[in-house]
Every structure is written in C-alpha cells, then in structure tokens.
Queue: 2 jobs
Job 1
Amino acid sequence: MMRLFVSLLTVVFVSIFVINTASEFAWNKLQGDNDTLSVARQMVKVTKEKLSVGNHAEIDSYPIEHFAWLEDQRDRLIKGDIIELFSGEEVSFFFSNDGLRVYELGPYYVPAPDFQMKIVFNLVSYFALICFLLLWLKPLWKDLNQVKLISQKLSEGKLDIEYVPVHFSAIASHTHEIQKLTSKVAGLIENQRYLVNAVSHELRTPLARLKFALAMQNTTKDKHFSEVQNNILEIEALIDEMLKYARLEEVVLNEISTPVELKTLLSQTVSKVNQVDIKFTDNIEMEEVWIKGESTHLERLFSNLLSNAVKYGNGIVWLSLNQLPNGYEVIIEDNGDGIDEAQYDRAFEPFSRLANHSPDKKGFGLGLAIVKRIADWHGATCSIGRSHLGGAQFTLLFPKPLVI
C-alpha cells in the first residue's frame, strides 16, 4: 500500500509541475511584447536606474508623507522596492531612492486579460492532469480486473486460473501474491476432488470382494455375519454420500437459472418421502410459484430436510409454503428432540455429528452441508430454529426472481 501511495503522490506532483510550467510558458508566448504591464514594469526599472546615477528626468515626486501608506508599503519604499497600485484597468508605479521623496510613474492603461483564453488554458490544464492520471490508472485497472476475474473463476469452481503480469502497476506485487494464493487454493480443491473420487473408487473394489466372500459363506444365521454385512452397507452408503457432496463442487452456477415451479416440486418431493404422512400446507393464493434454480438439486435439498425430519422426529412432519414481501418461505418442522441453539452454526458443517442425536439414528453429517451448499447457489438463506411441535424447524427463504 505504501508503494501505491508514493506512486500516486509522485504522479500528481510531477503532473502539476509539468502542466503549470508548460502553461506559464505558453501563456507568456501568447502574450508576447503586447503585454502592457510587462513593458511598464521594464520602463520603471530603467527610470529608477537613471535616477540613481543622477540623471533626473522630469518626473513628479512627492514627500513620502504625502500618501497614506500602509506600514508594509512604507517599509518597502524605504528599502527601494517598487510599489504597484491598480485602479480598475490602470496601474501606477511608486518608488523612492532616498526614502524621503516618492516618484510616480503612470497611470498606465492595462488591458483586461483575455478571460476566454484563460478558461481554455484552465480546461486544457485539467484535461492534461486527467490524462496523466489515466496513464497511471491504466495498469492499475488491468491488475484489478485480473483480481476480479481470478476471484470469479475460483468462486465458480473453474480452476484454469491465468495471470498476465502488468508492467508499471502500483499493485503488481499484491496481484501476483493473490494469484499465487488462488492457484494454491485451486490446486488444493483439485487434489481434494481427485482424492475423494479416487478413494471412493478404490474402496468399492475391496468392498465388492468382501461382499462376494460373505455371500459364499453359509453363515447367515451368525450374528457376526449380520454385523459385518451391515457395516459394509454403511461404508457403501458413506461412499455414495461423499461422492454426492464432491460432485456438487463441479456444478456450473450458470445452470441454476431455469424456471422451477416450487409448488409442484415440493409435492413431488413429499410423495417420494413416504415413511410418514407429511402435512403439506400451501398458504399462497397463486396457482403457480416460479423461482430460478435447478430442479434436481432443489429436490435433493428438500428431500434431505424432509428425510431428516422423518428420521429425527417422532412421526409428525409439517411442510409449509408461505409468501413474503421479499420472496417465498419454505418451512420444514418435526416433533422430535430438536437441535440445541449452540449447535445451529455447526449443523451445516460437513461431517458434523450433533451431540443430541440418538446413537441408533446414524448419519454421516453431510445432509445439511449439501442443503447449505444448494441453498447458497440459489441465493436462498437457510436457518434453524425451534418448532412449535417441539422439534427442529428449518426455514428456507428464496428470493423472488426479477424476470422468469
């Protein structure tokens, strides 16, 4: 930041100095010998020099007390300086050789300056300053655009991050560090994707062999056989859940922009979760409620929340759709034990197992993480609370689309 600050100060200082020097030189050239004031000043100097060597011309002189001088003016006259007094478009010159008498030359007519020319000079000066600043800002602007594109690509899951060094940019070093950081993050994401897919794929082979070996054993009545078989099924379910979560990273956000009818989607999802009778309440008078999204992922979101409500509830699950001024609200609640308020933030973290869940109701801690990821993609907010039924309440707020 210090480099940026010093660079800006240097550019401003040099620009103002160059512009002022060039403007003054150009103005003096335009005025030339027709500058009456300059000619009069030169005449006063010549006259003062003649008087100092005893060549007294016919010049009016007055005692210094003849005029009501300001203290500063009197001191300057005594020192031998020339005093200029303007009156409208006229100027008179006063000077003294001995500090006792004052000589007066003038008044001389001084034509008013060309204000139009002055305005043109000022505008040209301001334009030149803007050009200097734009030249300084151009490489900075390119660097900032690169930072924006790098961040945008990373947020969209695109890992082909490129950086073109910009010469003379005041933040080139910072941009380069940001590029190195994003490249490292992109590499970590790529490695994580590869690791999850590779591990999941490699685990399936020994699991398949183990299942085949168990199937060949004639020990189905053995309790240990059932435990091993259940553990294998649990590992397979975990692998499937991990792959689902990993594949979410590869979703292109541009795909989440198609019209989705929310009422129909909720009804379809409820019909697929058939373990209990889910009460669906629609509090919107419109026949159709449209939002922008991707139906497959939205169905997974609602399915995960409804499955959790069925799993951790005690037989009662309510689903309601409400209209708010700023969007549509989907509420899923159950009559289970609920979630402690201190664990609301942790609930959406991957592989997070909540303390108040029963040991017999096993899960992998990825369901709510998937819910949060899909909700974020759709610009929706997901919050946890306490239901009036006694259990947990999940509230989703989808924004109203501007255009469908």
Job 2
Amino acid sequence: MSATGESVRIALPLPLDEIDDAAELIPEALVPAQAHKGGSGRIDESRMWGYEIQPDDTLTGIFTKLGLPIQDLYQVLEADENVLALDNIKPGVELLVDIENDQLQTLELRFSPAHKVAYQRKQDAGFEFKETILPGTWKEIALVGEIGRSFSLDAAAEGLDARDVHLITRLLKEKINFRRDIRKGDSFEVLLSRQYIEDEPTGETKIEAVRMLANRSPVSIFYYDGSYYDEKGRSLSKAFLRYPFGGSYRVSSGFNPKRHHPVTGLFRPHNGTDFSMRTGTPILASGDGVVSRVVDHKYAGLYVEIKHSERYTTRYLHLSKSMVRKGQRVSRGQKIALSGASGRVTGPHLHYEFHIAGRPVDAVKAAIPITKQLEGKSRKEFDALLRQYMARLDAPREQEGADEMLISRRQDQSMDNPSTL
C-alpha cells in the first residue's frame, strides 16, 4: 500500500531496452518499499517491493505472480507453523518481499504501523520468524452522546467505529436489551484510547469505560487487566476452563520455547501443550468468545481460534472436524470440534494454545481468570482505577462538552516496550 496512494510497478531483472515491452506484464499493485511509511529497521528496504493484499488473493496466487518457487512458500509456512500469522492476512495488509536469484530472501507482513512480522531466509535452510510490536502512544478521549435514532448510529456519529460499537453492545447484552430498553434522549459516555505511531493512527483502539443511561437506569462497565467488570468488580465474562476437554489426558509435549521438533529435527518453539487423545475426542471452548479463525493449515492441520476478549485468545490444532464457523459466538464448555491427527503430526492429539496480550503462555501453569468477582489486592487496584475512570468520564460534562484529548499513563504490560521475538 503506497503512502502516497500512487500506482507503481514491481521491478523486474530486465535490460533497460526491454522494460517498455515488459510493462504490460508488471502487476500494478506492487510498489517500492521506500514508498511505505515506517520501515522495519532490520532489512535493506532498497531491495524490497511491496504489495497490498487484495480481497481475492491467496498466498499461492501471490507467489505465482512473483514467479517464486512453491517450495519457498512451503518453507515460509513451515516457519509460520508455531505462530500462524499468515492465516491472519486480510485485504489491505501490506506484504513486502526481497527476491534475489529467483529466490525469496525476506517476506514481511505489516498488519499495522505497530505490528509487523518477517520471515527471513537462513544460511543453512528454511526461514526464521521474527515479530515486532511497537508500543506507540495511546491517546485517551471521552465521548458523550445522546440517543436520537439508535445507539449504533448515534455512537458512530460521535466517533466510535463499528468494532467499538460491536464490542460495547456485546459486553452490555446481558444488562441491556438494545431494542427495548434504549429510548430517545438516553445518554452514553465512552472513554477509549487510540494507538498512534509517530502521530499516525494504527487503527487499534481500546474501550476503557462505558457509562450509559438506559430506560432511566444507569449501566456501567470498566476495563481492568484484560477483562471488563461492572462497578462492583463483577466480571462480565465467565471464568476459563483450565483444559478444553472432559476427562483426563496425558500431556505428550509441554509448552517449550526451545523444543526439538520430533518430525523435522529442528529447534522450534512449541507454543502450546499437546494432549494425547484418540481421534474424535470432543474439544470444548475454554471460555466465552467469538470464533476468529477456522483454517486447514498444511502443517498445523485443521484448527480453530477463539478470541475471548481484547487480551485472551485460545487455539485448538490438529482437529479432525470443526463444529463452529468463523464469526460464531461460543460459550464456555461448548463443543467446538473433534480431535484428530491433521497436519504434520506423529499421532492423534490436541495441540492447545492460550495467548495473553498476543503472547503464548503455558496453559497448564499460567494465571488465567478463574473467578467472577475481583477480591483482595485486585479489587483495591480496580477500585483505584474506577475512581480515575469516573473522573475522566465526568470531565467532559464539567467542560460542557469540550472534546479534550488526554494522554493515557496506563498501558498494558505487553505494550510497555518494543519487542522483537
């Protein structure tokens, strides 16, 4: 995607007198990397060419357009097996490539100015994966609105995007019937943060707090440590299951950032826990959420990913059958799939991953939400944060609707420092 919006062409290794004849064969969507804002700092971008993913694109099709060997694609997919970043590409994502001697040297995906992943050819064989997440600057703003037509339309008019509106309605669905309880003249207040990299918005937002008057009754929700709670510290989502199945199954391979792969012999991170079980064993959703992916991967096999909140995600790999579809809402304990031996495996098992703030953690040992109400130290921290939220929500009223933007001093631990994995 060109920062200037201009249409430019990919460079081909042709003599100068052949360039005009070849121009018709050059895909218009490929642009020099220099035209992109925000370089990675790790590679020589003078050698890179960029491409904007189109709605009907596939990785195979892109590699064919570039004339790259399909074997390069397989090697990149192998490097991606433990992170599955390539399955998350969508129209508008920027893809950069470095090609030398008809071989792919580097492939980089830019999901946003704050999130990039790269696959770089190793000297011995294959590719290695690197991820860069930049903290950026989070700017906080309080929005105040009044219901005139509907919450979704009036919230959008005040500056909330469709994702923000969807999240708020999902969080409040147990407290408010948006068709019956919302009346003309009811008010809403939203405190949200938006992420910026060098004053450029990344598109990432975070709902901090919501206060709404519905049918003359106040309803509020607040963000704390990756989840949402009401003013009394009661969680809006149910606790997670420690294991996504019934019964007891042996751990055949534990969480290990430096595992020796039993099939390839390479040292690659094992970002999940493998449970040995017969094909066809029911797999359950660990918690409430929305199915974000159902993918049949060359190496990971058939797998399901569930997004539980802005902070928590789970993955279930090597399945024989999926019982859910992308976009479907699921509940804790709901049967979502059957275990199997799809992909590159030595036998039937479930590979289960638990991610916190985009990072894989040991699902067997990690501290995951297991209570519905905050207590002790967590409750004290929440109450202190609640007072800050309320003061910020009240500020626009005191300023008679002033649209003052505030810099948030509170950031997720995962966003405190830039990191390259």
